[in-house]
Amino acid sequence: MAGGSRGAARWAVAAFVVANVVIVEVLFFTAGPGKNPTLTVAKFFGVHAALTAAVQVLLVSRLPWVERRIGMDRLTGWHRWVGFALVWTVLTHAVTVVLGYSALGGESAGATFLSLAAVPASLLGMLAAALFVGVAATSARRVRRRLRYETWHGVHLLLYVALLLALVHQLLETTTFTASVVAAVYWWSLVLFAFGSLIVGRVVIPVRRNRYHQFRVSAVVPESRDAVSVYVVGRHMEELPARAGQFCVWRFPGHRHWWKANPFSLSAAPTGRGLRLTAKAVGEGSAGLRGLKVGERVFVEGPYGAFTSMRRTRPGVLLVAGGVGITPIRSMLEEQPVGDQPVGDVVVLYRVRDQGEAVLLREVRELVAARRGRLHLVTGPRAPGLPSFDPAAVHALVPDVALRDVYVCGPPAMTDTVVATLRTLGVPKSQVHTEKFSLA
Question: Can you give the residue ranges of the FAD-binding FR-type domain (predicted)?
Fold first, then answer.
């Protein structure tokens, strides 16, 4: 049933995209050709750029029904690739517009470009295209790694300016978007649905939830020399739709500026009384959590993520964690039945450099023991190949791995290695569940 729920969400997204592509194709061909063949091509890419932009907005709207079934990491990945597709579609539209009018007026492409820049509708489109290209350039992996998250995020917010400029450009264009009453109704409906979803998912729900629950810090507990747990309570916590394995985007206005946020997993299953996050000091945000004061207000976005028992398809489960990736694994252990399942039904592989790095190890041991499970603490120096997760080693530790659901959370290199190993061991893709905890 869990797999069907996730499949239903994917089919719903796919059906939405396909249905809208069909509608756009029909509207394009019924609107008639452009002034010459090149401008007809420009119109084709223009209307598809508008549709792609709407899909791009929907992918980051964080609507709960879709996000909880597909996961923010997968939606963010789709958003990234749709974003690059949008840039190329916009650039193709812009180039063909210039070439089309150049051929129509008998002027050079440069002269035509300058003439079009004097037209308000075209100028807005040019500015939007320039912003799309700039945001895409900062999203390239090599550039992104060199930027602080706050810098990258600030630049990325220009995407909304670009979308607004593109929308006005679209409304001023009367050749396709308003060619008929049906076309006008469709485009306005699509725009309102996309931006309405964004406002509801990213503004209305978080603001309403925080006003209702009034989250605050109730305790700060050091777990090791470089790890700390933060306990958060609030009003009516039993009504918060949180599940073990999920994560939230946390803002501590008294600790950092309000616009600085960090995604941290829930390191304990929600009890209806409060939440707990556990973080290692790997950056400015996580390193300063020890300085939080009891009673300090917290702004919480979420919970997010599909890394939950909703995905379960098999009775047995293998939970694989690397480093601080143990936090969602530890919370998921609490959802496993205590004492009444077969011995070894729950297996945990916990990969750390040495035992001193094993955050929450005592709690994990107790939870596994209470569930008659097995815990394998895999230690050793970090290496690119992570030989401790090669197929032979994993099969030796968990011979029936292909009959289990497998949840994997850890550094990207480790996650990729484990997923490749599981594929080699014949574990069906539908039984492998991963989550990458990041804002972009």
Answer: 210-310
Helix (H, G, I), strand (E, B) or coil at 431: helix
Give me 258's structure tokens.
């309000």
Amino acid at 149: Y
Instruction: Check whether residue 77 and residue 141 sit in a common domain.
Output: yes
State the Cα–Cα distance between residues 325 and 255, nearest whole angstrom: 24
- Tell me the β-bridge partners of 248: 264
Burial class (CB in 10 A: 0-12, 13-18, 19+), 332: buried
CB atoms within 10 A of CB 361: 19
Query: What is the per-residue pLDDT across 281-323, written as a single tens digit (0 to 9) for each?
Result: 765 556 678 888 999 999 999 899 888 888 888 989 999 999 8
- Is the domain of 251 the same as that of 289? yes
CATH number at residue 220: 2.40.30.10
Instruction: Quote the DSSP letter at residue 426.
Output: T
SS3 state of residue 216: strand
Q: Please answer whether residues 406 and 317 qualify as being in contact, where contact means their C-beta atoms are separated by less than 8 angstroms.
A: yes
DSSP tag of 305: -
Question: Both tokens of residue 187?
Answer: 């485009």
221: β partners: 229
> Cα–Cα–Cα angle for 71, 2, 246, nearest 5°?
35
Amino acid 33 reads: P
The count of structural domains within the chain is 3
CA separation for the pair 326, 358 (Å, rounded): 8
> What is the residue range of 263's domain?
214-304
Rounded Cα distance, 100 and 71, in Å: 43
Answer yes or no: do 317 and 283 share one domain.
Answer: no
pLDDT tens digit sequence for 54-74: 999 999 898 888 888 888 878
d(CA 388, CA 10): 34
Do 2 and 313 form a contact (C-beta atoms < 8 A)?
yes
pTM of the model: 0.82
Mutual angle of helices 109-117 and 120-139, in 10-degree steps? 110
Does some domain include residue 248?
A: yes
Residues 110, 248, single domain; the answer is no
Q: Before 412, cis peptide (omega within 30)? A: no
- 198: tokens are 């964004």
Q: Are 174 and 36 in contact (CB under 8 A)?
A: no
Residues 285 and 352 in one domain: no
Tell me the C-alpha distance between 101 and 42, whole Å: 10
**Separation between Cα atoms, residue 262 and residue 252, nearest integer Å:** 9
